[in-house]
Design a protein that fits this description.
single chain, 4-stranded antiparallel β-sheet
């Protein structure tokens, strides 16, 4: 009988405040969709870092005869065979180094022609202008400074470059988008909480006679508050379900179909469906518990017996 009464009160409350309940559902859905999107964006950045950092190399560029007049590091002339051999030997002795590949000037010229052969400047480049280099694969890309410290400024070395810097701007952009999404999510969350509190108070005010009678017959505060808490939880759960649907549709539309980024950007390792599905229970749990807790706190003062 009590359960039937609570359920009937929930239905009455939802019908009386249909517009505000709808606003709560929409605001909760948007805030949780942004929350889930921020989590997925962070995981996407982490996945891309793991994927690309595993492929980038540290490049040690060696001096050629043209660098002797243009680069202070190469003032003593082009790298010698003995210097190249010593650099390679020292690299292979380092514990942080996984693989070492020597790229000759001819190989560098061929790669340049393959990538930029259609540009006007490519016709003016000759093999002797290209730099020899050692492409160093590290066990841990984060230990770039170990190699840079050991070889920067050494005789025959023009520069030491970490290819991660090429990708860093992209990762910084994605991290910035993630921070913006979290900020908007926090704003929407505040709006949702304010709507929940106002909806609960309006609902409690519209049923003040019923709650007054329940007080007179000795009903406990928790029993009086239960229908209002359940209303907020139900609206929040609906918002969580909408947010979960938005995340699933967003993943499908952006990556698999619609924009089909997975097909157009095959070099990017996108997160899979498992990453999205594992976030849904958290989104639904927050959608259920957050409004219920907000309603409980709001009603403690408003319906204090």
């Amino acid at each position: 009988m009590r359960a039937q009464f609570v359920l009937s009160e929930i239905g009455v409350g939802l019908r009386r405040n249909l517009t505000m309940t709808f606003a709560v559902i929409v605001s909760v859905a948007l805030s949780l969709a942004l929350f889930g999107g921020a989590l997925l964006m962070r995981e996407q950045v982490s996945t891309m870092k793991d994927f690309w950092y595993d492929k980038v190399n540290v490049s040690i560029f060696l001096c050629n005869k043209n660098d002797a007049t243009t680069s202070p590091q190469c003032s003593k002339g082009a790298v010698t065979s003995e210097q190249k051999k010593q650099i390679e030997t020292d690299l292979e002795k380092m514990a942080v180094v996984d693989k070492v590949h020597h790229e000759s000037a001819e190989e560098a010229y061929k790669h340049y022609k393959d990538q930029y052969g259609d540009t006007p400047i490519a016709a003016t480049i000759t093999p002797d202008q290209m730099q020899e280099s050692f492409r160093v694969k590290l066990d841990d890309p984060e230990k770039y400074k170990v190699v840079a410290t050991a070889f920067a400024g050494r005789a025959g070395v023009q520069s030491v470059q970490d290819q991660r810097n090429i990708l860093q701007n992209l990762f910084d952009l994605m991290n910035g988008m993630n921070i913006a999404a979290i900020f908007v999510m926090a704003l929407m969350l505040v709006i949702a909480l304010m709507l929940i509190v106002n909806t609960v108070r309006v609902s409690a005010f519209s049923r003040r006679r019923e709650t007054g009678i329940m007080r007179l017959v000795g009903a406990s505060s928790f029993y009086i508050q239960m229908p209002f808490i359940m209303e907020a939880a139900f609206a929040g759960l609906l918002g969580g379900l909408v947010a979960a649907g938005m995340l699933l549709v967003g993943r499908y539309f952006l990556i698999d179909n619609g924009l089909a980024l997975a097909e157009k950007m095959q070099l990017v390792n996108f997160i899979g469906w498992d990453a999205v599905v594992t976030k849904l229970p958290l989104v639904l749990a927050i959608g259920l518990l957050m409004p219920a807790l907000a309603a409980f706190i709001a009603l403690r003062k408003y319906l204090k017996v």
